[in-house]
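Protein modeling request. Please complete all fields; requests missing the sequence field cannot be processed.
Requester role: graduate student
Desired output: 3D structure, token encoding
Chains: 1
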Amino acid sequence: MLLFRAGRGSEDDESVPRDPETIKPDAGESPDEEEFLPESAAEPEDGEDPDTGSDSEDAPDDTPADEASGEESDPDDELFFEGEDTDEDFQSGVFINSLDELEEEDIPLSDTAREAERTSPLEYIRRVMFWVFLAAFLVSSALLIRNLIQKQQAAKIYRDIQAEFFSTGFSFDVSEAFRTDRSQTPGLEEDREQRTIRTMTELLDGAENDADLTAGAEGSEEKRVVNEDLERKRAFLQNMIRRNSDVYGYIIVPNTGISYPVVRGKDNDYYLNHAVTGEYNPVGCVFADYRCESSVTKNFNTVFYGHNIENNDVGMFHDVTLFFQKEYFENSYIYVYTMDGLYIYEPFAVYEAAYDDEYFRVGFADAEEFIAFAEEAQTLSEAKDPATHEVLSKNFTFTDRDRILTLSTCTNGYYTQRYALHAKLIRTILE
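Delivered output (431 residues):
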């Protein structure tokens, strides 16, 4: 243990007389006989202390070493060590080094510190919430990154398919796309007329039918061009079917982002989160209602589903919302390719519906029930003229010989809401 003792603070303290009462005489001596003289006035006797006159063996030495030696005291040396730890220990660093060896447990805590060290229930809750929020953040970040990666993968898949669809060359014999029983393909009788056909370029540009075209050399040339392009599309679909037997056709809406292969699965769930390649992807694929017939003309109402994705690369049915605008509602056409041929539809109604409404109805008891369904859908249309804000209507008349196409997508609002776009089949090219 280190002990500290105060020495003389300065030379000025020497002038202060000491209290005689504090000096005890030796035994046998009378206090009255002791004289207190300055050092210069008295000679010490043998065996006596120069300051007290008593024997040096009995009297304690209160004189600092520097004063006894005649040296002046240094005010900076007021404190010195005695005991086991000497001044030399302090100067050599033993004292300082011992501080480095102190442990937290060596220092006793005060009551306040001990109280602060106790963890309150609120502190436990705070710590738990911190780790929960941190875990939620990390999981959300991982899911977001994965979603972005999957969107990029889906965009690449469909970009490659679109490039292949619009290309003019194929790596296999297009004769494989010819069906030996095409003459028996079920369809509407008037759809087999080939006198008013246009080239595929004109059709995709939205050219209207010209009923006054006459059959002849010019008509035969147009027919040949159309048929060649149609057979290329059939060859494309045949190649797609080789990769995935669920491939149903291909849908195009010019001047929009809708250009995708169409599949038909065993239910209406699988292709919500699987690409046309069959691999898992939340972007999914455009798919036909599994209850639809393979031949489009056998369905009073052919229904296609697709996600509403706000992504320029792979938006699926996002651009269905464009048909609320007059420009698209009145001037756009929908093209659907299948192995049977090309089917061209004209939109006549677009509106918001609930997921459990019958807008996607496929089966009908008879033609009259279908006609009532199509007429009611036309009255539900919400497409408006931006200038007059009047609801737009095509005022179509429906018969038992008509067929319609329905495109369904979510609104990205309340989860039960959907957008429905209905279009009437106005033309087919089967040969």
